[in-house]
Amino acid sequence: MTSEYEPVIGLEIHAQLLTRSKMFCACPASYGAAPNTLVCPVCLGLPGALPVANETAVEFAVTMGLATDCTIARRSVFARKNYFYPDCPKNYQITQYDAPLCTGGHIRIDGNDKKIRIKRIHLEEDAGKLVHSDEENSSYVDMNRVGIPLIEIVTEPDLRSPAEASLFMQKLRAILRYLEICDGNMEEGSLRCDVNVSLRKTGTGKHGVNTEIKNLNSFKAIEQALDYEVERQKALLGQGLAVSHATLLWDDAAGECRVMRSKEEAHDYRYFPEPDLRVLEVSDTLIERARASLPELPAAKEKRFVGDFGIPAYDAQLLTATKEISDYYEIVARESGNPKAASNWVMGEVLRELNERKIEIPMFEITPERLARLIREVEKGTINIPTAKSVFKEMAKTGHDPEVIIAGKGLEQIGDEAELDEIIGKVLDNHPSEVAMYLAGKVTLLKFLVGQVMKASKGKAHPQKTTDRLKTLLEERRDD
Question: How high is the pLDDT of residue 248?
Answer without folding.
Answer: 94
